[in-house]
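S1.2 Input.
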Amino acid sequence: MGKIAVGVNMEFVRSADKGFEEGVKIAADLGYEYIEPMVHNGRELLSEAGYFHSFSMDEDPRLMKEICDRYGVKLSGLSAHCPLMRPEISVPYLQRAIRFAADAGAPVVNTDEGVKPGWMEYDLAHQVMTYTLTQVSITAERYGVIVGIEDHQIYSQTTEGLLKIANLVDSPYIQINYDAGNAYIAGSDPYEMLEACLPRLYHVHAKDIGGVLLEQRGHVTGTPVGVACGEGVIDWKRVINMIKPVPRDIVLSVECGTIEQAKKSLEHLNGLL
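S1.3 Output.
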């Protein structure tokens, strides 16, 4: 049995227009032990100006680690979502994210299959993803970083589809990042999906669904953020009890839309733990 800890995806400061370091400080002040940053290639105005939390991989990965150390938090993983069905984008991006994660101290890089090109049929899509994940798995094995496939898009919205993608390549470094909120909003049973994913589970997005988001169930395959954990439909006590037997450490990385929701989520999850 591993340890279950609580972290937060840096999306929680997006609506407050906070930059990376300020977001890390806020997470630490709230009491979070882990954070999950988003990384990007190149430079973009909002992050450079300190109004957006994403971290450029043109920066030194050890700068990210220094910032985390400064505020006493650790990395649960990196958010590195990209279209696996477009290898010209996803192969170099994920390979770079893996190398970055290894140097920054993040054990997992999370991604999903991305938006499917309109012209691409099912069989070809999975052949292309097999190519992408084969290339990526070689880098992951070399650097010792897990790639977590998330339930988020057209094929991974079902348990069968998620496991099919995770099993396209026979590598111990291709595993699963389970998102409870995405499972629910896509119309799947979030507990049945979690049960099926437990042998491959390495990271969890603690996303709850409530309010106006409930109206989207069955109409979308995922959502960027949810409501505060404990204020939606997900039974977090049940989720935690299901995860407890997993023989490795698991971080519940809260995905919510505001700083106040992050505060409430941490209080709720810590109360259950």
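S1.4 Remarks. The radius of gyration is 17 Å.
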